[in-house]
Each structure stands twice: as structure tokens, then as C-alpha cells.
């Protein structure tokens, strides 16, 4: 994958990612189209991104590093910096349009479509991670921790402990 293609992939992913993992389906598709092992790359990037302090989208920097080394991480950083500036401009526009019923309906539809796109991508990541008894146990425990809304650090500590004990 060229650095330019990496830049566009991260830019598009961060443009549609309104926090959390909403950019995963697009990112996964772009990485697969580039001939990379998308599920493996994303799983490792998410793990590293979740243990670093900062916003959830930092895993995209890790993707950039895995794909292109330090230059890839710098390209990913540049791609991640553009959307926040665009948000400032769009926020002014939203303030002017929010009173329109049609605009609110479009925003609601976009939220639902992001959720619909996350379901198959998340399922694929679960299937890729749960290849043995330990992986399946970690998926189940992770799902329980997510529904309990515990901090990600708790899940990471449990995963580290399980890895040390069972491997």
C-alpha cells in the first residue's frame, strides 16, 4: 500500500468515524482491497490503540505504523488532523440547519447506517480473534465487560493476566 493510499484510507476512515469504532468497516475494506491481512492488522492496532492514552481513534495511527513504519505513522497523523478542523466548519453549518426536520432525519439515518455497518465488521473480528478456547473466552469476557461499561484498562489487564497464565 502506497503512502498516498494509506493517507486517503486513514482520512476517509477518520472522516466517517465519529468516535469509537465506527470507521472499522471502511478501514477493513480498504486494507483488504490493498491485499493486507485486515483482520489481523486491525486486531493488533486496536489492542495497542486501546492501551495508549487518548481518543479511541488512535488505533488508526498504529495501522499507519504497521503499514508504512514511521513514515506511515506520520502520514496517518496528518490524515487524522484534518477532520477535526473540518468539524469546526461543519458545526457552524449544523447550527444553521438543525431546526429543519429533514436535516435531523438525515442525521438519525446516518447514525443507524453506521451501526448497521459495524455489525458485520465486528462479527468478522470476533471470528478472527476466537480461534481457540482462550480467544473465545476473551471475546466472551470482553463482551461482558463492554456491556458493564467498565474502563478498557480493566479488560486489558484481564487479557494480559489470562495470556500470562494460559500461554
Secondary-structure element sequence? Answer: HHHHHHH
Strand content: under 5%
**Which class do the helix and strand fractions yield?**
mainly alpha
Number of helices: 7
Based on CA atoms alone, the radius of gyration comes out at: 17 Å
Distance from N terminus to C terminus (CA atoms, Å) equals: 34 Å
Task: Pick out the low-confidence regions.
Answer: none
Give the tally of β-strands: 0
Range of helix content: over 70%
Mean pLDDT level:
82
What does this structure look like?
The chain is mainly alpha-helical and 167 residues long. It has a domain at 3-99. It is 82% helix and 0% strand. The chain has helices at 3-16, 24-33, 38-51, 59-97, 101-129, 133-148, 152-166. The protein is globular, with a radius of gyration of 17 Å. The two termini are 34 Å apart. The mean pLDDT is 82.
Relevant terms:
167 residues, mainly alpha, 0% strand
Describe how the helices and strands are arranged:
Blueprint: H1 3-16, H2 24-33, H3 38-51, H4 59-97, H5 101-129, H6 133-148, H7 152-166
Helix pairs in contact: 1-2, 1-4, 3-4, 3-5, 6-7
Short description:
By secondary structure, the chain is mainly α.
